[in-house]
């Protein structure tokens, strides 16, 4: 893949002298959905599919971006001065995908943010323009964090090319800041953290309230993770993602009127049930119930994995999907169809939607000897009901960003 990326760079920019190639993974969340911005736990893992970037520093301040995934957009140009100074603070729809790497560069220059996390002032150190070519083998809009992969890749390339002292954990925070403040999506930390901190063969059990985490080996002997793309694209900025977040914030605010809690993740199931009437709104109660119960499911899932009880882990995945469908209402007919079909198949340990919802993918744990039948049966059933085909990916757990 490295040589192919270099050849693409040469085709677009004329030569490939001085080019370096980097990679950052996508991620899938096994359980713990819509908990990251509610102060709860998540359990994602990095994937071996992701985003490749070929980069070369320039002798001027010009920036040139090109994506092999969006050739129709052509080369997108900018200026380092404009991005770092904040002249391009506003998300420009016409720049499309290039807003993500530009947003990361912009975030590097936000001194107040950098100081908050004890990151040195990097503005003067990012002092040369760049020619960059990207290619991703993550399905766009699938919910596997193609945007976080692109953001972390950009930050990691800048770190390496300019010799900046910033940790992978700090990179995840910087990229979340770019997504929140530049792109305009109020996402939590999970996507960027999972991409930046991925470790091959391990999931990440992350407390999003404290950023305390531990790696957990995922020993799927005789089993595989199968991701199914519904082919219904979703865009976080255009979805009801921000609405769900604001609903949870309002539910929390009402509970805080009598409870000394900082997040919904602070609550046990019993505490929530004892105080939920304070919320005084059926919709808000449903949203908050999902956040509380999903957090507790994720904690239990980690325990079941440590106890090598993969069957219980699969059962918790099912409970997660039901909650996302009924209480959080972010699934939709496409994802529900895929999951309903998966639950009926032999050899399926667990199945649920993954990502923000409103389209995207499901994640399934399937016995290896049942995978071909799983793909056939679920694929045929989905096409019959929805009218078009789903895409299937048998994936392995990958590591974090790297120079190739």
Task: Please provide a written account of the structure.
This protein is α+β, with helices and mostly antiparallel strands. It has 2 domains: 2-215, Ribosomal Protein S5, domain 2 (2-Layer Sandwich), CATH 3.30.230; 219-395, 2-Layer Sandwich (Alpha-Beta Plaits). 41% of the residues lie in helices and 21% in strands. It is built from 13 helices and 12 strands. The chain has helices spanning 2-13, 80-85, 99-108, 111-116, 146-162, 168-183, 190-196, 241-256, 269-275, 282-306, 310-326, 332-343, 371-386, and strands at 20-31, 41-57, 62-67, 76-79, 130-136, 202-207, 212-217, 223-229, 348-354, 361-367, 391-395, 402-403. Strands 1, 2, 3, 4, 5, 6, 7 and 12 form an 8-stranded mixed beta sheet that branches. A hairpin with a 4-residue loop joins strand 6 (202-207) and strand 7. Helix 8 crosses helix 10 and helix 12 (332-343) packs antiparallel against helix 13. The chain is globular and about 65 Å long. The mean pLDDT is 90.
Which features characterize this protein?
Ribosomal Protein S5, domain 2, 8-stranded mixed sheet, Alpha-Beta Plaits, 404 residues, 12 strands, 2 domains, alpha+beta, single chain, 4-stranded antiparallel sheet
């Amino acid at each position: 893949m490295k040589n192919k990326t270099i050849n693409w760079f040469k085709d677009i920019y004329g030569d490939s002298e001085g080019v370096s190639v980097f990679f950052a993974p996508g991620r899938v969340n096994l359980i713990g959905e819509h908990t990251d911005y509610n102060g709860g736990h998540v359990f994602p893992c990095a994937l071996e599919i992701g985003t490749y970037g070929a980069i070369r520093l320039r002798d001027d301040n010009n920036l040139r971006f090109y994506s092999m995934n969006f050739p129709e957009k052509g080369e997108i140009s900018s200026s380092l001065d404009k991005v770092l100074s904040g002249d391009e603070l506003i998300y420009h729809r016409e720049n499309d995908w290039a807003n993500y790497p530009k947003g990361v560069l912009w975030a590097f220059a936000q001194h107040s943010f950098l100081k908050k996390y004890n990151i040195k002032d990097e503005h003067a150190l990012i002092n040369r323009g760049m020619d960059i070519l990207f290619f991703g083998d993550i399905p766009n809009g699938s919910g596997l964090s193609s945007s976080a992969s692109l953001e972390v890749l950009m930050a990691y390339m800048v770190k390496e090319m300019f010799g900046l002292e910033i940790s992978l954990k700090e990179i995840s925070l910087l990229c979340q800041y770019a997504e929140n403040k530049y792109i305009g999506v109020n996402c939590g930390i999970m996507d960027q953290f999972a991409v930046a901190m991925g470790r091959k063969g391990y999931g990440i059990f992350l407390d999003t309230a404290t950023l305390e985490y531990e790696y957990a080996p995922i020993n799927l002997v005789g089993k595989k993770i199968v991701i199914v793309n519904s082919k219904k694209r979703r865009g976080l900025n255009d979805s009801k993602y921000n609405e769900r977040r604001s609903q949870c914030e309002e539910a929390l605010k009402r509970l805080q009127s009598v409870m000394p809690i900082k997040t919904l993740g602070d609550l046990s199931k019993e505490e929530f049930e004892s105080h939920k009437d304070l919320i005084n709104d059926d919709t808000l109660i449903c949203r908050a119930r999902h956040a509380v119960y999903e957090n507790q499911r994720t904690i239990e899932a980690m325990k079941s994995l440590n106890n090598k009880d993969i069957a219980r882990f699969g059962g918790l995945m099912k409970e997660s999907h039901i909650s996302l469908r009924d209480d959080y209402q972010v699934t939709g007919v496409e994802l529900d169809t895929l999951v309903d079909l998966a639950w009926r198949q032999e050899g399926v340990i667990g199945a649920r939607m993954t990502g923000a919802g409103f389209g995207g993918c499901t994640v399934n744990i399937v016995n290896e000897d049942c995978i071909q039948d799983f793909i056939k049966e679920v694929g045929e059933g989905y096409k019959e009901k929805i009218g078009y085909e789903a895409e299937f990916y048998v994936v392995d757990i990958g590591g974090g960003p790297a120079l190739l």
